[in-house]
Amino acid sequence: MSNEVEKTAAAAGTKPLLEVSHLKKYFKVGNKRTLKAVDDVSFNIMPGETLGVVGESGCGKTTCGRTCVGMYDPTDGTVLYNGKNIHELKGAEKKAFTKEVQIIFQDPYASLNPRMTVAEIIGEGMDVHGLYTGKQERQERIGQLLRMVGLNQEHANRFIHEFSGGQRQRIGIARALAVEPRFILCDEPLSALDVSIQAQVANLLIRFQKELGLTYMFIAHDLAMVKHISDRVAVMYLGSVVELATSAEIYSNPLHPYTEALMSAIPIADPDIEDSRQRIMLEGEVTSPIDVPPGCKFQSRCPRAKECCRKDAPELKEVSPGHFVACHFAGK
Amino acid sequence: MAEEKVMTPQVEEEAVEIGKNWKANPHKWTGDPNQPLLEVKNLRVSYHTYAGEVQSVRGVNFDVKHGEILAVIGESGCGKSVTARTIMSLIRHPGVVKEGSQILFEGKDVLSMSKKELSQYRGGDCGMIFQDALVALDPTMRVGKQIMENLRIHSKMTKKEAKEEAIRLLDVVGIPNAETRFRQYPFEFSGGMRQRAMIAMAVACQPKLVIADEPTTALDVTIQAQIMELLKRLRDEDGTSIILITHDFGVVAGFADKIVVMYAGQIVERGSRKEIFYNPQHPYTWALLGAVPRLDWENKQMLRTIRGTPPDLVAPPKGCPFARRCELCMNVCLEEMPPVKEFPGEGPENHGHSAMCWLYADDAPAEVREKAEALRVKGGEGHE
């Protein structure tokens, strides 16, 4: 799928929508120690593509996403959106960027203002960017957005506390779509929702991508859902991307030992498969991202770790077309 | 093996093998395995709120045999956690266990136990693992002391014995540097470790039954796999019965012996693991199975959704609770509670499969049955 996207993009001469190169985001945590939340991450996102980002909690996926849309200033490295460095945008360009890039947040309870009505929440972005000509059009547009996400006009004058979690997340999506964005950062949009509601929201996201040609960066820890929604998947561990490939490839042929362990830990809703499969048990938990020692970050939990892993950090290398792995032993 | 030697402790401690120092349970059940350990009969629980009486659990029946793992599956608000809490007799005002409800543990009614009996039952015969370990653990008490407390009360150990035992337990559940950890507070533990500490606490007195209420929901998949492995080992080696409460079909698939599917305070389908996954009968079970993407499905296909939202349990609907969200809804579904239909499975382990649905009534119209065949999901298959 993504190969097709890339091919068609290359044929049409289009460039990646988002180019992230050597992005670093460090936080100072006192005692002169630094937390390397994002440590030298590079990837591209093509127009119309979904890049999934997975990893355990604390691996820096949210920080990475937020730095990519300009919510944080990077410590080092660049993020190019349509060829322009987003952290150096000013004035009208910055405003245009905020219109094109939107975020759907994880917690629909915390990310929507409880003192605003649904119409105010959805309309706010349209007000800022002047996307309507009169009150009538604004109202129509809000009604249209609500219908798009499966709610209706009557909900416009209600407050957030009157809605269930799934409905709130739909309002969050309507809010993001209101300014006609091209790129949406979805930061764990499904994890707060129930199974049947998750499916409803996932279907909405897939449908809008097809209909509106949106580009997503989809951050989640639900690996099955990420595979389902994404064209390509990046696996993060302690602030670094350890593997990046198409979603089919990464699930059928994981090359990094961490990815392998992650894939084998996903529970599958099929007793026969569950009974027969061999789990690769990772021992211990994610090590602290503060003052990580040199070498491969995964060495302390890696079953394959050798002497060289303690000295040199492996770089992200392309081992087969479109499949990048950061491991000394990948493919060996 | 040679490769393991180069593993060096890094920022954190070296990983500890789970289950090291495992001690066999002296109370292991050696009698008839078919004898039920726990029987829940016609359980009804309500909460009195300003909005009215919320009927959280509306007539639930099931039993758990010795050494059996029962999974209770359902979405939030379906009454699964309330059921678990009632089994531990933890329902407090404004919650009320309705008259006529019975919970028999080894033949003894938990709901009419005296305070003294209850204190032996809770933590002694029956341990509980809660979803949110940070809330369930006492933040002002050292973790070791919390485990010791249980041992001191139930196993009548001396302080020294209890301390040794607590350290052994921390070791068993895979917490590295157990002696240091013993003296730490819950906030110093990571999420996965807190959950392990809670498991250590729950199994400290070698209970006959462990209730695990969404034990891995807040955890990452790799940690989830470790915790589930630990629980499974508890059953396999000690013969402890486990009630696992979850909303995740994946977790259940490799773990449970029997599954009950709950919806709006009632059990809509029950059966062995294989029957529920490969031969599900209730439309709600189909919908749940179809709503979770599987790794072997094609990307970006539409997932099956369930329209609408669960019913309001202040005024539960008259007929089938699922009727208003069901694509096969008939008139009778809105009026009368559906009958329970038994499905004889193959082999003795697949006995007891039943679903509560009008679809299997003798006079169900042929067209609805045809439509049902099209909707039917069998585990292990894609759809649409």
Can you offer a commentary on this structure?
The complex is a heterodimer of chains A (332) and B (384). Chain A is of the alpha/beta class. Chain A has a single domain, classed as Rossmann fold, CATH 3.40.50.300. Chain A has helices spanning 2-12, 61-68, 91-100, 118-129, 135-148, 165-177, 195-212, 223-229, 247-252, 257-265, 271-276, 307-311; strands at residues 18-28, 34-45, 50-54, 76-81, 84-85, 101-104, 183-187, 215-219, 232-237, 240-246, 317-320, 323-325. In chain A, strand 1 and strand 2 form a beta hairpin. Chain A starts with a helix and ends in a 7-residue tail after the last strand. By secondary structure, chain B is α/β, with parallel strands linked by helices. Chain B contains 14 helices and 13 strands. Chain B has helices spanning 2-5, 80-87, 115-125, 133-136, 143-154, 159-172, 178-182, 191-203, 221-238, 249-253, 273-278, 283-291, 331-335, 366-375, and strands spanning 36-49, 52-65, 69-73, 95-97, 102-105, 108-109, 126-129, 209-213, 241-246, 258-263, 266-272, 340-343, 353-356. In chain B, a hairpin with a 2-residue loop joins strand 10 (258-263) and strand 11 (266-272). In chain B, helix 5 runs parallel beside helix 8 and helix 6 (159-172) packs across helix 8 (191-203). The longest helix of chain B is centred in the middle third of the chain and has 18 residues, at 221-238. Classes of the chains: A alpha/beta (332), B alpha/beta (384). At the A-B interface, helix 7, helix 8, helix 9, helix 10 and helix 11 of A face helix 8, helix 9, helix 10, helix 11 and helix 12 of B.
Task: Considering the chains and any ligands shown, give keywords for the structure.
heterodimer; A: 332 residues; alpha/beta; Rossmann fold; 8-stranded mixed beta sheet; 4-stranded antiparallel beta sheet; B: 384 residues; 2 domains; 5-stranded antiparallel beta sheet; 13 strands; globular; disordered N terminus; disordered C terminus
